[in-house]
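Hi R.,

As promised on Friday, here is the backbone we talked about, encoded as structure tokens. Could you run it through your design pipeline when you get a chance and send me back a sequence?
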């Protein structure tokens, strides 16, 4: 099955005092690190850029929020990516999670199929919905409907699809996930 990676880079990063996707970590931007992480897993890499223009790493294409959902958060960016791709599966990853292991992302992709239309992780008792794998047709319809109804939270949207949540026991083999903060 073909895969599209959607990197979420549309947030305003007001607490970081600057463009989060352009913050430097180990000599590269967070956006470049994230592109490098997802590129081997995907046939296409899209950058959900929200309502602004960003300098993009090679091998990526920007997808802005649809005007009717502009500035509505991660779901708007996810929908922009889902509507821009023709691939069957999507890997969604926030640009500030460049240290997730590629094997974990592959595990999420492998979970999609059969009845499962969405997979994400629950780590430390918290959902991480911005590292997810999706069945594109099912997710596109669900995300559009959620946004049209005024919803903005990602987890309830994922929970409305037939899904699988990777739990602590399955995630242990991928630890540790942490790395130095960007400068």
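Update: got your reply. Pasting your designed sequence below so it's all in one thread:
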């Amino acid at each position: 099955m073909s895969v599209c990676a959607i990197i979420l880079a549309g947030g305003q990063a007001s607490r970081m005092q600057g463009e989060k996707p352009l913050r430097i970590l180990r000599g590269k931007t967070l956006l470049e690190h994230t592109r490098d992480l997802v590129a081997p897993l995907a046939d296409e890499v899209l950058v959900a850029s929200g309502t602004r223009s960003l300098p993009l790493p090679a091998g990526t294409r920007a997808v802005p929020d649809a005007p009717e959902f502009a500035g509505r958060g991660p779901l708007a960016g996810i929908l922009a990516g889902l509507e821009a791709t023709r691939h069957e599966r999507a890997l969604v990853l926030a640009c500030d999670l460049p240290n997730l292991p590629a094997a974990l992302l592959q595990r999420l992709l492998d979970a999609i199929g059969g009845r499962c239309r969405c997979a994400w992780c629950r780590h430390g008792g918290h959902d991480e919905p911005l590292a997810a794998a999706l069945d594109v047709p099912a997710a596109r319809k669900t995300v559009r409907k959620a946004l049209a109804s005024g919803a903005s939270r990602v987890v309830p949207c994922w929970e409305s699809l037939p899904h699988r949540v990777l739990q602590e026991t399955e995630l242990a083999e991928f630890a540790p996930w942490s790395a130095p903060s960007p400068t």
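One thing I noticed while checking it: The longest helix spans residues 136-148.

Thanks again,
M.
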